Amino acid sequence: MPTLCPRAHARVKSLRRRRVPTALLAALFALAAAAGCGGGGDESTSPKEIYDVPPTVEVPVADDPQEVRRPPGLSGRLPAGFPEDLPLFLPASLIDYGLDERWVDIMCPADLGRVRAEMLDKARGAGWQVNGETLRLGEREVRLEFRDGNPGSVVRVHY
């Protein structure tokens, strides 16, 4: 039994509601099924249009500037007076600093244990004396505070 498209089906239902004789209804149904729903014919038999495609354009890329990747470092500018010889965990971003007090907050993408261990090891390697989270080099003293940044870690450096 052929299926009707929604428009033809709606017409047949409305005729049933009006109590049209069954023979007339059957004739209308046969006409609707034979005529289809006007959805077009078989697309495989319709002619296809052919377009000419212009040739591709050759673009010289030898002279284009290339991206230069920088090694991971510190994002942001440390304030004046920050100890330049203090090794930091990298990559990192400066996220806050004190105006009256001398401190900076540095966000690191690694977990807290790794950041703490690496910063203290690097400080020892650079000649700083490490006593807990207090670092000394000559007369200078730096205190570190490590906290979870979720994700990553935040290091507050008091200098």
Radius of gyration: 39 Å
Terminal-residue CA separation: 88 Å
Order of helices and strands: HHEEEHEEEE
**Total strand segments:** 7
Helix content: 25-40%
Counting DSSP H or I runs of 4 or more residues, the number of helices is 3
Tell me, what's the shape?
elongated
Biggest sheet architecture: 7 strands, mixed
How big a fraction of the residues is strand?
15-25%
Q: Give the low-pLDDT segments.
A: none
On the 0 to 100 scale, the average pLDDT is 83
SSE-based structural type: alpha+beta
Q: Record the strand order, biggest sheet.
A: 1-2-3-7-6-5-4
Topology:
Blueprint: H1 6-17, H2 22-35, E1 74-75, E2 92-97, E3 103-108, H3 112-125, E4 129-131, E5 134-137, E6 140-148, E7 153-158
Parallel strand pairs: 1-2
Antiparallel strand pairs: 2-3, 3-7, 4-5, 5-6, 6-7
Could you explain the architecture of this structure?
- This protein has 159 residues and is an alpha+beta fold.
- It contains 3 helices and 7 strands.
- The protein has helices at 6-17, 22-35, 112-125; strands at 74-75, 92-97, 103-108, 129-131, 134-137, 140-148, 153-158.
- The protein has a 7-stranded mixed β-sheet, covered by helices on one side.
- A hairpin with a 2-residue loop joins β4 (129-131) and β5 (134-137).
- α1 runs antiparallel to α2.
- The chain is elongated, with a radius of gyration of 39 Å.
- The model has no long low-confidence stretch (mean pLDDT 83).
